[in-house]
Amino acid sequence: MQYIKTELISSQTHATFDAFAEKVMNHQLVELLNPAPGLDFDDLTTRVLNDWREQGLITAPTGGQYNTLDVARACMGFVLKHRGFSLVVIKSVLKAMDAPMYHDISMLQFVVLACRGGNLPTAEMPLLVIDGDNRIGVCLARDLPAIVGDDDARTYSHTVLNMGRILNDEMVPKKVIHFGVEDFLELPHKIARRLCQSGVKKVNIEPLKNRIYTETNGGADPLFGERVIKYQNGRIVSEVVKETEVLRD
Fold first, then answer.
1. Cβ neighbours of residue 122 under 8 Å, at least 6 residues apart?
2. pLDDT at 68
3. What is the dihedral of CA 88, 92, 94, 98, to 10 degrees?
4. Residue 126 backbone phi and psi in degrees, to 5
């Protein structure tokens, strides 16, 4: 991962960041590794996080709980994925954010600490800029004209993330619910929907036959399939819906 040229960032921004870095205490860095409080992920968000953990985008939760840096990575990933970034590119961006920005402070640690309550004024919240070649840089709003309009930056577009909004907006972890899990998993929509539907017991995918076979505990009547109801002593003890659908139309 390459970085946007630091000479494009103003001396005022460097002074602001340097002054803040000098105030960062070791115990604040330690706090970022502690379990993040008040997290309550729904099943769909958990499925996405598990998939991203297996692909190396975020680390495994310690004692079943994600720390503050993990949550920051996830929030950045949600926004970038919804913007159309592939998981491979998101992984490279997050890896670059782990590189040192100051002596013992990574770019990600710096941004998270800077965005925590009242550490920096709202007008000086850091922005993460990703150019069309996926090079990244952290700057302030005053630097955008130079970075985006630089004649030497032969890129197609720039993506600018307001890190203060991303890391402090409680709605960001709920984007999975709002947009649907298919936007965040790199699977065909029909497969993702079936894997994550309520009550799923079994999903068989047969590409050669272009079919998906699904079994769920209960559910709506299938368009093509059957409902199997088992009784014991006159009572229903299980109800399984078996459905067949076309994989690719």
1. 164
2. 85
3. 150
4. -70, 145
